[in-house]
Amino acid sequence: MLSESSKAVVIATLPVVRAHGEEITGRFYPRMFAAHPELLNLFNRGNQATGQQKAALAASVVAYAEHLTGAGGPAWDAILDRIAHKHASLGITPDQYTVVGRHLMAAIGEVLGAAVTPEVAAAWDEVYWLMACELIAREARLYTTADVAGGGAIWRDWRVTGVVSEATDVISLTLVPADGGPVPGFVPGQYVSVAVDLDGGLGQQIRQYSLSGRPGADHWRITVKRVRGVGGAPDGLVSTVLHERTAPGDTLRLSPPFGEVSAVAGDGPLLLVSAGIGLTPAMSALEHLAATAPERPVVLVHADRDGSAHAHRHELPRLHARLPNLRLKLWYEQTTDGDDPAALTAEVASGRVDPELIPLSPDAHVHLCGPLPFMNEVRGGLLRRGVPVERIAYEVFGPGMLRGGV
Ligand SMILES: Cc1cc2nc3c(=O)[nH]c(=O)nc-3n(C[C@H](O)[C@H](O)[C@H](O)COP(=O)(O)OP(=O)(O)OC[C@H]3O[C@@H](n4cnc5c(N)ncnc54)[C@H](O)[C@@H]3O)c2cc1C
Ligand code: HEM
């Protein structure tokens, strides 16, 4: 709870802080990285360069202030959970909150100048620490559940046992713990962080990859799409290393599995909707159900550019044989003679997914994963068709949330 005195100050200053959000963020990161260059290894350089992530931290503090002052807004439990899982997968530690808080408050002071009286500074500091404490507590619980001693202890070496080409520009990697220890379990939909050292002494970068194999198997599998730079932008840092420089026998640093979104929620009908590389949680869900609940009614709707871009598609007939109540519906922007519905055991349509034509049980739990515009469109269509909002879970393969989130 925000103290009454701070509440009044935060209400009075919210409009000016919100209006200068971008400027505050613009000052915050450079001053924090200048004082703590080691944090460059923690943050995503691509997101920093494109500005995608930059706004997320300050914007979420402002949105949290609105929440604390009673202005309503989104469902905070879900948002805090999402951030905490992401932070845990990066090994964020409580002491780093002091660093972020100091530089965020200093950036607010630099931008708003004399408007930041000691009372104003104290009120926003209170907002920051209320949010920080919520996150620190959630992250501590996640570390305990993952059986690690804290953020500093998340990294473990894994040995690559296989590299398989799955489609154009998509490979999967199979991995086992390098120390021969047990393979931790996970829920389909969860992801691991992968930390790679960049060439030329450029430090480390961390990215998340959803586990695409079966929980309980004696190995993990991730499926990675190579990100190529378009229009002069550089190629993706980590996906390029994984594609070009990773071979069986190599070692990778991986986090435990984290992620608050289950791809197998409920125990009734399940609708999995994916596009492009967003199919990785769905593949894990199908493998899991084939092993544990083969009778469960499942629809997989998958959209891709064409059959050659569709990773894991050769696995679908095998899964279909093990899941008698599975219905597969594929939408390819371009179909070819090779897209034989009988061989694929799937319905195959040309063009983009039409949400009106998605097979839908009234009581289905839905899991979406793909580019944000795709998910917004599909979710909008499913909501119009009467699916309750709380039954639609979604995963974003980058920073950000769907319309209506922070
Ligand atoms: C929860 C979660 C699960 C995920 N699961 C998967 C998965 O299963 N499979 C998968 O393949 N991916 C997955 N991802 C995405 C993955 O984490 C990476 O984001 C992806 O591999 C790209 O990382 P990269 O380092 O190759 O690219 P980055 O280096 O991060 O580059 C990303 C983009 O930014 C652009 N960019 C970089 N620098 C600049 C610049 N200076 N100017 C302009 N543009 C620039 C690049 O051109 C590129 O388009 C997941 C992400 C999340 C958050
Ligand atoms: C109250 C304090 C904080 C808030 C409100 C906050 C908020 C956020 C949000 C909203 C995201 C994006 C989540 C997503 O959608 O994927 C995020 C990601 C991230 N946060 Fe925090 N955060 C806080 C503290 C910290 C601290 C202390 C650190 C460590 C120095 C940190 C490091 C990161 C990193 C590295 C990411 C991933 C972003 C990327 O790599 O581009 N955060 N945070």
TrEMBL record:
It is an enzyme of class 1 (oxidoreductase). The lineage of its organism: Bacteria, Bacillati, Actinomycetota, Actinomycetes, Micromonosporales. PANTHER family: FLAVOHEMOPROTEIN. Its EC number is 1.14.12.17. The keyword ATP-binding does not apply. It comes from Micromonospora purpureochromogenes. The keyword Disulfide bond does not apply. In the C-terminal section; belongs to the flavoprotein pyridine nucleotide cytochrome reductase family. It catalyses: 2 nitric oxide + NADH + 2 O2 = 2 nitrate + NAD(+) + H(+); 2 nitric oxide + NADPH + 2 O2 = 2 nitrate + NADP(+) + H(+). This is nitric oxide dioxygenase. Residues 1-140 form the Globin domain.
